[in-house]
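User: Could you check the structure of this?
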Amino acid sequence: MYIAMQCSDSNGTLNTEVCTFYGIRYDTRYRSAVISTEHLNHDYVVPMDPKDYENAVKQIMEAMKERVELINIEQGIVCRGRKGESRHVEPQRLVIKPV
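Assistant: Sure, the predicted structure tokens are below.
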């Protein structure tokens, strides 16, 4: 499955990226979701509250049930950076749609 997302780089520039989606996990220390992709040298991080993370996971699971090839983050910004790089942005609420 692939994921399309609006990403902000270290300069704040927004770009749409399409990546192979490997999974998502929640980092309680930084209160952020981390999206795993084929880009091994970058982290795709979404600061969010635990409840919003669980809601995003439910949306992804629904798309997986439909066996879609692509999910699109229609609402919310993903921070792209080098592994371990941190960002301070407002918590996001993702809206994820199957395509």
